Fold:
Amino acid sequence: QHHLSQVVFRCRRPNPNHSSTVVMTQVQVCSSAPERACCLAWSLTRATQARIDAHQLRGLHAEVLSCAELVGAEAIEVGATHGVLVCRKPAGALITTVDTMVRLGQLIIRWACSEEPEVGIRVGVHKGEVHWIELPDQHVRGYFGTAVSMSKHLAEIAPKDCCVHVTSATKQSLRVLERMRFSVSMNLPIGTALTSSYYLEPWEEAKDEEHDEEHGHKNPTVNCVSTMGSVLPTAQKGMTLGSSVSKMSVEEFAEFLEKHGVDPTKFGRGAAKTLANFHREIAVEQRSYLFKTGNELERRMELVRLELVAEDTHGTDKCLMLASEEMDDGRVRTRNQKLAVVVPEGISWQEAVKMKFLNIFGLTEDVQKATLSVEGNDFKEETLASASVPGLQTTYLTHEIRMRVLVGAEPSLKAVGLPGFEPFSTDASGEGAKQSWIWQDVGEKATDSTEALFKLLNDHAINVAEFEAGALNDLVEEVYTAKVSTLMLRGKELQRHLQIIKVWLTADILSVPHVLVHVYKMSKGKRDTKIKDRPISMRLNHGQRWREALAVALSSRLGLNSKSFHDFIEIDEASYCLCEEVEYSRSYPGLKTVYRIHEITCRVSTSATQLGLPTGQDFAISRRMSSAEDDVSVTHFTWKARKDFFGRQGRFQKSLLDVSAADDSKEVDPKRRLLAPAPLGLPANSLQSRGCIVVQELMKSKRTDWKRAKNAAKRIRDKDYTLKEFFDDCVAAFPELALYMGLPGPDGKTPVTSSGRSADDEYQRSVGALFAVYWLMRLNGDGAQSFCFGVDDDWKPLSAACRSPRRSGPERARRGTFLEQTDWKLFEEVMVASGMLIDQGKGVMAHDEERTLAMLVLTAIHDIMKVDQLMPTVAARQKEFCGYKSGEVITDHDVALGYILEHVPDALPSYAGLPQKQKDSVKFTQCNMEYNMGWLVQAESPPGALFRKFKAIITAGKADPRDIAFYFTHWLTDLAGAEPCPQEGCEKFVLKFPQKVLASFLRSFPFVEHLSGKSETKVMEEYLQWRWTTHEPSLGLMPIGSGVVAKLRVIIMAQGNSQPFLDAFDDLFPEDRTVLETELALTGCVGQVYDIDTASVGGGPAFLVYYAPALLQRNHTDAEGVLVVLAEVLRQARSLWPREQGQAAGETVTVLIDALKELSVEAMQQLSPGEIWVLQRVTSKSAQVKKLSVLNDSGQDAIDRSLMRVLSLGSPQGSSGGSTSRTTLLHGEQPVSGLLPVTQEEAEPLVREVAIPSCGRCMPATCCL
Structure:
């Protein structure tokens, strides 16, 4: 299919006289006829091109060729930093060329993301025409056409690095990969012909559906159902196969289909039923059957639509209608439909109707003969290809039957509401839900919506006969009444579209980013675990905006009212993403469902105690689902590390589909719990009504068993003193432990605590904290092993080799890793500093029994005020306590316990019996320190914000270093026992907490203890110096002079990769380096400066750049670029808060940069036309980085210059990378992706100087104009 064409080339060559001569040449060039194919274009990002070396580049090309070979693709254009591949034939029978190339793009990007440093790459995929011509004198082909040009264009305008970019039409061509989650490109560049596009993340999994159990690769139990006779129409030529199929396993059924020319591998793909479901439909449910003619198979479905009519006393015909169904979960579905009967294989429709009347209404055959007669019978037969059963034609046999109740027979039909035409209900076994029936005038037609939907579905080859019972009415209600879904045409395909909002709530828990996810839901005694690890989500109504839905979702799911939403929730605008996922519903066979998911991340303030913060406790929310007293749904939530959900990289495997590792979670034993004490006997309302301190009344007759309490403190380190003996002593000694179970309420049930957990959970957690104390006091023996693995049912220490309880392989490995890699000496040093352990030298340890007893008492009582019934009311004589006024209930459990210890100390007998010195230490732990450990170990905060409150409390209470260490020991043991399963070990630390972060916390404790005798700045200075001297690998001599503190804080924030940041710091432009040196050396403390840094000159306010460590760690490969960004943020913050002396020196402003923290510097610059980054002043003590459009929705200027400063984020390579410097751009201008030259030489023609007048408020170098 080649043809010859004449091409004229104009060639300009210099002649000997240095003038140009035009030479006209005619050549014969071979070219191809157009062909349909799919192309993939890839190109490296500008930042990667600037730094990639030859070795990594060769590796990239080798990987591209290797992946292309896997899928049968061919390279048609190759450059060092870009290329184009084409796929003309799919890689398999079920996979399209688009599937192939999208998967190829994923594989290439996965390799790029797995490299160190990461290779920035962009991929575009498009299907269209491909042509080629043979280039003259080169013996190579040049390719062009829509597939080539559009794939290149898609790669060029990809919305982000490391994604596969496709058009809407290309996405519609997917088959095997159509269920993958694609994100919608929100801002396409101006000038592109595209109206919409999608992109695929590299680690989205293309699951092999054949590995799913639900897709038929586990043998279900098959019940052989005997047929009732064999009444087949004589006109049928062929034979039915029901009896033989019913005896087949799923595997045998697959072989049977293949033998008859039906490809079983096509089942479970796209709209097709899974093979197991199809087998169950025929062999078990008998909703259809197979019919054989010659060697060809045909599927048959026979259905009776029955209109049962009776005449009332007025002569009006009434028809029996199914009005509604009550589902198993309590929901009521409106039906408004006639009786429908499926005709199983081998029996007539008459027999099927008789069986239905008998099973549903209890009408025997004799009663039916005496009371009913057939009045009309219409029959329709049509044969269609059904998408739900690929490779088989389906014949639909439909009987429209009208039956009448004989006059005078009504009294015999009380079972169906006659003779009075009363509504009635049925609940027959095997028929599913409870059904409600009514008699309706025959003249009342089905709603217009039902008829319109029925016609719409049939017009688009979707056969309603295959829908599950009542599904059509459900769809009518969903589309026309509730308006939570819409039906849309894409091409010629009718699709069901639903809008979903998915909300990721994130919070920093002990400096580790966490997200809130579901654990399970309890409703009517049933436990639903299908929602495990899912974030907050909700369907949107038609026309509902995602912002409105966000507030509704958090209100309905978490009970957050508008005030709580405003106080605790902060929306991360930059995180918004619109995605699409495709599914096929069993209820609506043949109707594809497209979920458009609005995904948003919100940051939660750690003050939101009702959400388990600040320590990340699990909690539960109860919702009343209806007016019924027992219709309450309780949903349990947990906080999990964000890294488990975002930024995870799967295994890089070269395959067309992803096969997940086997999940052995079904083989593990449930977590064990201890038997809890019974609730105390007095009713809470009787005590509260008398205005009593409830705890005081409950403990009035209780006594601490000091003999057993002291025995526990004395023998806690004895080798022969077991955990069981320790537990028995604590339970017998401390009567306060019974308070965790609360008081019986009016309904006799124990209350839920303020944490949202059950009372039993809080008891288990307190016992877990006691066990943590026991184990940490025994690190010289079996303490560490039990801390990691727990104890068995006989209370003996477990190990990795123990077979019971059964635990998953990954869990056993994590426990073993924690045991082997933890520096247990750090725990021991904290215990020594607290005074509980005594180091006697030469490795010999003793312990202080009195100090240990104080810790046991504190652990027993520390969370009792989480029980709402126990919370005290501030007495009139106190007037005020920690912000609570006289007569107000103290709802903060820590403050509530502090109130009891301060004003009613005798209410708790175990606390009252301690020596005064130990009482003071216990009371000190209940103070609100406002101390964030992560701010210290990551050098994120200036010393004022970090230590001011802590220092004030120490000074006021005259606490000594031992009390501070005592506080930290309690913090450790409390968190260690946070999971409500004490015998399982300290799972919070062992399984859910980063070891590196925990070690950093432990190493920081000794420095904080110095606050009792040193200033906040001095403690911070000593900590920074210690981090430099202990850095591995060594960084050499500590810097001196100006900028020392800035350098020390930067390398600690970077958490590794320190040398590149030190080098980059020295290479910064002077104006950027000066900003960092000055701002990072401010202390936030009046009259305090760093002794080691000449740049530390006082003044304020200081700035706490929240998430600065995360920003630096994300951009460790572009250290200079990210330091420029940090300097610009600080520069503009100073523009909003001019530097002052005096009282301002003691203040700290928090600058939130969560919108930047996960972006590369290059990604920050990839802005759509009209978009800018700004720093906005939110309150008098806080600001936030946001991405805004220059104009708002009304076309007005969106920049409020009194509260905002435009950020100029420079270029990814900083000053030495050969790219444009800050002086090349006007202040506030942004580099435009794809237009900014790579080198300074190329940039020269674009450089321009513009005189900028001063606004009169700002410094000239950073003027807002």
